[in-house]
Amino acid sequence: MLIELDSVLVAFGSKTALDRISVTLDQKRIGVIGLNGSGKSTFARLLNGLVTPTSGMVRVGGIDVAKGTKAARKQAGFIFSNPDLQIVMPTVFEDVAFSLRSSKLSKDEVRAKVLTTLKRFGLQDLVDEPAHSLSSGQKQLLAIAAIVINQPKLIIADEPTALLDLANTRAVAELLLEELDQQVVLVTHDMSLAERCDVVVRFDNGEILEIGDPKTVVAKYLRVYA
Amino acid sequence: MISIYRVGDSRLHRWSAGPKLIGLLVLVTAISVVGDNPWFIAGGFALAFVFYLVAFVDRSSGYTSGLNEFAIQLWKLKWLIAVVFLPQLFFEHFLIALLHTGRVLDAVLLASVFSATTKNADLIRAIEKACQPLARMGVRPEAVSLVFAMTVNAIPMVIQFVANVKEAQQARGLNPKITLMAVPVLVASLKYADDFSEALLARGVEL
Known about the structure:
The complex is a heterodimer.
Chain A: E1 3-12, E2 15-25, E3 29-34, H1 40-48, E4 55-60, E5 63-64, H2 69-75, E6 76-79, H3 92-98, H4 107-120, H5 136-148, E7 154-158, H6 166-179, E8 183-187, H7 191-194, E9 199-204, E10 207-212, H8 214-225
Helix pairs in contact in A: 3-5, 5-6
Chain B: H1 11-14, H2 17-33, H3 38-55, H4 64-76, H5 78-88, H6 94-116, H7 120-131, H8 141-171, H9 178-202
Helix pairs in contact in B: 2-6, 3-4, 3-6, 5-6, 7-8, 8-9
């Protein structure tokens, strides 16, 4: 799916978060790196309509996100770094089923679909568990399951492994970078994950400093800050 | 204090959420209205006790399991009882304070056994159904039920904030008190509400 940003400026009061950036991306795994406050999370939020550009245009899959926010959100799921924020319903089953609330599926169809999805993510034994009692890794898998069940074309993950241990980071990374069929935009501080993408975009001070081969972009970044 | 659903197959578990919710509302309202009658309050307490026995009946231990659950629940409520009961002693006669506290205790016990035997999804559907007639007045039943679900969901988060703030203050050598904890817990809750609303938008929810 084509992601297009045309001269996008995002300002919060007097602070410029993104400064007239233009970029076109269509790779399947897109890594986004940069220091805190460099603009990478604002970029990710633009793609889902969580942030509206002050000027310029954001198009995802041909949809102008500012004008067709609802349609844009339908085709682009968003995963936050803190999975607690994404849990809407009290139990694991209910939370995933919540994503299908506007579908026209029957109760039995919803149940079957949710159970299949939970099995795919290894959460089948936690169906009736309170979602907040899960481990951080399980919560993040639950958050991804709740997004994937709607079969979006794009998944935007904003530092999805930031709060996870090594084992859970590996599980979530495998899922996002290898197993999912969807296009993925992965905002991360974990350079080993960024290197596994098809392309890496490096943000710096509200601008795109570099786009290109992951290993090259990451190596340059590490030379400056590591 | 606030129970969450406990898997089970008791008679109470099998009752539909809608009638059960109406029953709870009627009982709690009755206890509030006729709250000065000690027999009524004792009856409410006895009813909650019986509900606990029935809800947690176990094949191996029979009614002992329900008895334990009831005792645990009462123990959890000790601070609530203290907070409701003690200040009243300054203004009311001992027996009146006892009656008022009993009224609150009955309501909480009945509500807790209700939530322990009712799946949230069933309850939400029941609320949505109950709100359908209000749709003509512009009320959106799905929004009402969603707000309810989110409220239930926010409780463990706020409990977690309290635990985190308490731990952080202990780590700094402070003795956690309500006065010291109120502001950080409030700030954390407001931040959570802000971030959560963004997450809801990302999941396509617009209330």
